[in-house]
Amino acid sequence: xxxxxxxxxxxxxxxxxxxxxxxxxxxxxxxxxxxxxxxxxxxxxxxxxxxxxxxxxxxxxxxxxxxxxxxxxxxxxxxxxxxxxxxxxxxxxxxxxxxxxxxxxxxxxxxxxxxxxxxxxxxxxxxxxxxxxxxxxxxxxxxxxxxxxxxxxxxxxxxxxxxxxxxxxxxxxxxxxxxxxxxxxxxxxxxxxxxxxxxxxxxxxxxxxxxxxxxxxxxxxxxxxxxxxxxxxxxxxxxxxxxxxxxxxxxxxxxxxxxxxxxxxxxxxxxxxxxxxxxxxxxxxxxxxxxxxxxxxxxxxxxxxxxxxxxxxxxxxxxxxxxxxxxxxxxxxxxxxxxxxxxxxxxxxxxxxxxxxxxxxxxxxxxxxxxxxxxxxxxxxxxxxxxxxxxxxxxxxxxxxxxxxxxxxxxxxxxxxxxxxxxxxxxxxxxxxxxxxxxxxxxxxxxxxxxxxxxxxxxxxxxxxxxxxxxxxxxxxxxxxxxxxxxxxxxxxxxxxxxxxxxxxxxxxxxxxxxxxxxxxxxxxxxxxxxxxxxxxxxxxxxxxxxxxxxxxxxxxxxxxxxxxxxxxxxxxxxxxxxxxxxxxxxxxxxxxxxxxxxxxxxxxxxxxxxxxxxxxxxxxxxxxxxxxxxxxxxxxxxxx
Length: 641
Prior knowledge:
Elements lengths: L8 H8 L4 H10 L13 H6 L1 H18 L24 H16 L3 E6 L10 H10 L4 H10 L27 E4 L2 E7 L2 H18 L9 E5 L3 H11 L2 E2 L4 E3 L2 E3 L10 H13 L7 H10 L6 H4 L6 H15 L14 H4 L13 H18 L4 H9 L15 H6 L1 H7 L8 E3 L6 E3 L9 H12 L15 H11 L6 H6 L19 H7 L1 H13 L10 H14 L3 H25 L5 H19 L8 H6 L1 H13 L1
Parallel strand pairs: 4-5
Antiparallel strand pairs: 1-3, 1-4, 2-3, 6-7, 8-9
């Protein structure tokens, strides 16, 4: 939207001024040096390092490009109410401001008109002659307009000039608020009156005729604040558009409703369940399910969590869905949750799987608004909040405010209840030029840094961190993690959890009770396998009685061998292979001889390293059988040559 206050001749002339050598060099130095190379195969790091050689040629190339094609959008041309494609603005600014305006209007009983406009074929029906004439009237030179004609074939910029429409005016704002816009999604806000609505309709009709950008009133929606439903219906009929009650959706978010209610979050809960219905948990390994829990189910609510604080009941329900999926269960077929969920989701350094809690995600996303509030004091959304929420200089809000901002401010109290004082981390620079975030290396607020801190404080911490072997699949790492806590479905563990068992004997020797330690260490079959592996590698742990001692022995062996990861991989291959063969015996009736089990352990470890490391085809099977650690060391030495 065209901002009259930004019409400065110096700015317009600056758009057409040729680039100087200093400007080009500064731009090169400000670009990332490790980005992907261009068609010539060179990165900007090459240009920077050899500037004395190629600098002048680079400058001439940029100037040549400048004379033929350039797109240079400026913040000074675009209204504060346009939140798309502008650095420092967010898609969430619009929904937040609309939310606060609705809450403010309800509180002061002010009648508001809200019209969501639908543009028919928004990117196909623009009259370029009209737009060129508008740019000319705004003071742009002919040369710059020639550039824009080409650039606007891809990115369209609208110019809204509603002079007779009465928007919302506040004392602390330089201009009235009449339009919120994100690309071609626009919502008009103004006083509720028939004349105001008619004037808005006339403006839209004129804009349609001049620009060719058709307004589809049949799909546009009218809402009213502090007015009866009958009034909204009558006004909608006069405007020939649809009526829409509050709350409604704007840019994919519910606006104007009470997000403290569990029912308001039902669409997100349903979205979780729909995702699960498309996945077949029984066909996925626990490693795949863990990845989906973290990357997909953990991210589904990010957009909604970025603006609204989720009730505890909602978070518990979503976490329950994730927990059931991880352990392979559904609403119909329940599975045992072998480890408490708050232990599963904690960071790997704290003994978990690094999934992260949804509560920490929600609080850290909302806390970003408080960071932006301090760093963007002159932003439009900040001024609207200051007026609508009745915010004081200290940041507190009026006690009778019921808007979204009140719940955002309340996040600090939630963090204080956890023992986290945000004021210790968010500090103003000594020169007053900005703010720093002390728990991030870049001194800039990141959701990740606060989320990790919240989980570290709120979730229980284990005595040891989770060991994650880089050359081993995720499902095997999780299997080992479960073994460390003795949380595998052995017959002994199933019996303890009330599962009816015909017998609890070991399927290998049939003489002892099947516990994890017996199955992996003290069973006669396991003892034979240990002896055969000890004859293959001289560092194999001996005289151990428990899985924990065996795992410690593998770690100590890694300290004596050149390639410590090789010891860990072979140890993991032994434990996972023994468990797989046990399952095949119990559920499929398959039996293998001792030497076959050893060969499977050797081949499994070999394929993991060959397929999951950078060694690839360099690793020889014959050399592996002779001495695995030396075989890997030789491959690494060969690869470095």
